[in-house]
Amino acid sequence: MASFRRYLANDSISGKLLTLLISVTVSLVLIACGALTITTYLISKEYNITQPLHQIEALFGNPVLITYLLESPETSKPFLANLSSLTSLQSLNILDANKTSLLSYQNTESQPELSTEQSQLAVYLPQKKQTVTLVLAAKPSLSNVLVLAIHIAILAIIATAGLICILAIRRVKHIIIHPILHLIEQAHTISDYDNYNVRATKFNNDEIGILATSFNKMLNKVQARDQQLINAKDQAEKASQQAQTLALETQRTNKKLALEVQVRTHIEQKLTDLKKYLSDIIDSMPSALIAIEQSQHIQQWNKQASTLFGITESDACGKSVYGVITCLKKHQDTISKALALNQAQTIEKVAIKHPSQEVHYFDIVVYPLTYSASANNSSKKGAVIRLDDITQRLFIEEAIVQNEKMISVGGLAAGMAHEINNPLGGIVHNAQNIQRRLSPSLIKNQELAARLHIDIQSLNQYLEERGISRFLNNIQDAGQRASKIVNNMLQFSRRSNRVLQPTQLNTLITRTLEIAHSDLAIKQSIELNTIKIRTYFDPLLDKVPCISNEIEQVLLNLIKNAAYAIHQRSSPLTEGLINIKTERKEQQALIIVEDNGVGMTADVRTRIFEPFFTTKEVGSGTGLGLSVSYFIITNNHKGQMQVRSTPTEGTRFTISLPLAASIAA
Ligand SMILES: Nc1ncnc2c1ncn2[C@@H]1O[C@H](COP(=O)(O)OP(=O)(O)O)[C@@H](O)[C@H]1O
Ligand SMILES: [Mg+2]
């Protein structure tokens, strides 16, 4: 049974169905046959269906019964009378060994039958110790017909069942097995050939049909998935190809980038060099250059600007230009105008105090950055402020003007001096003669007075008392002063033929200072400690070709003027100071005389070298000191004389003498 079950479990569905159908059919047939037999039996029983012969035989074959029946007719008679109920029994005969009837019974109630069944049964009777033969005749029993009918019915049932089974099998095959096999076949096609295009046919709307639909749906999904997978694979392949291409491109780009980096590094280096070079150029400019942004904050600040304002680039950058250069505040409008109109603006002659406290003059030009402005990049808009120190140029210009003036005025003065010299000489000479000829000490005067009877003493007394002698003295003094002036004036035209002698400037200055000490005003000032004179001699300065007494005269002039200027200070807070320095500068020997006196206004400064220009009261200054000094330096020594002066702060005279030896004056 177990092996059958195993076989059944492993059998194909069609096999299983076949087995099931056959089993069901056989069971149904058996049940039907059983039911038929039972029904037949019950029916035969109900309707007294005749017993078959062998049953009667078994009933009467009993030796005891036979012995009893054979005892006497009386005993057998009631028994036999009751046999009529056995409708199927037609006759009963008991024969002895000689075939003689011992008992005979004929069923009269029994319908005669066309055919009868006969049986003979030998029965040994132990009581009689003889063997008798029981001969029975019975109707052909109805049960046989019934059995035949049953057999026919069974056969019909089997045949019908077989037919039904065949039909069922065919139907089952058609509606179950065929779709299942179809499904299996499709599944095989799919699994063996990976062909997802096949679809299961839906034969019926049963579970297999649903299964086919689901199978198809699943296939659709699988196919879609497969397609997706294929697509994904394609995409992945494409992506991989792209990745490869990209990798190649990246490699190429990397190479390019590396090259670009190299080039950029190179360019950067070049730019750095260029920047440095430009900074060098900007720094080496003699002008102070300051780049400002639109907001007027400093962006760049060159070396000259650092020197000029004493502020480093890092300190200046990023700050407002007006905060760093306060003197530009009053020119803010001009700078803003340059930025607004995009036009260069110039501010001339701006005085700026140097960190060394010297005042320098500057021309300031504001150049707007035209490129950045045109590029419309307001963040890059700005300007460059150029400050040119024009102090030296101004001095030179002043010196040129001065020179021109000195040449013309000097010539004029010299001419005048010549003209005045003779009449002046006459005046002085004649005054001298008058004094001499009035003198009582001269014998010639005494003789003439005696001859004319004049008391020369009385005459002198008269002259004295009338003040004529004083007048004469005044004429004498004025004449001498005038002749001094004239002599000075004559210096303008005099061509000195004296050769310049190499002279130790330091010694010369020391000697001049000694002479200056004898000057009354200076002497007093020094003694009263109101003026201090300091000297700074350059040890590198050797002998300088010059005419020593002329240089002495110049120095004396300068010291006297300085002392005067110091005295002119209204409320001096510091002591008066005169510094005298010597310095060697290239092929020049410099003598610097500076004081902290009242200083000069620009008007005065431009005129000081003019002959007769003086700010002193009439009588106390001739106005010739500086003009003569200038003439001595420029004409006789081929040097230069410059002045720098700031009102209330002081004055500095700088004399430069060429060191080239033996210059003929
Ligand atoms: N050191 C000085 N400080 C200020 N002013 C000076 C100085 N030296 C010269 N001056 C001015 O120059 C003028 C001309 O000087 P100078 O030619 O020596 O003539 P004087 O001394 O007779 O006036 C002076 O009157 C004075 O105004
Ligand atoms: Mg003077």
Could you describe the 3D structure shown?
The chain folds into 6 domains: 2-46 and 146-185, no CATH class; 53-140; 196-262; 285-389, PAS domain (Beta-Lactamase, 2-Layer Sandwich); 397-491; 501-658, Heat Shock Protein 90. By secondary structure, it is α+β, with helices and mostly antiparallel strands. The protein has helices at residues 2-10, 13-46, 53-60, 63-71, 73-81, 142-193, 207-284, 303-309, 313-316, 321-324, 332-341, 370-374, 391-438, 443-451, 456-465, 468-491, 505-518, 520-527, 548-567, 602-607, 625-636; strands at residues 89-95, 101-106, 117-125, 130-138, 288-293, 298-301, 345-353, 359-368, 382-389, 501-503, 531-536, 544-546, 576-585, 588-595, 640-646, 650-658. The radius of gyration is 83 Å and the shape is rod-shaped. The protein has a 5-stranded antiparallel beta sheet. Strand 3 and strand 4 (130-138) form a beta hairpin. The protein is built from 21 helices and 16 strands. 57% of the residues lie in helices and 17% in strands. Magnesium ion (MG) binds at residues 557, 560-561, 621, 625. Adenosine-5'-diphosphate binds next to helix 19 and helix 21.
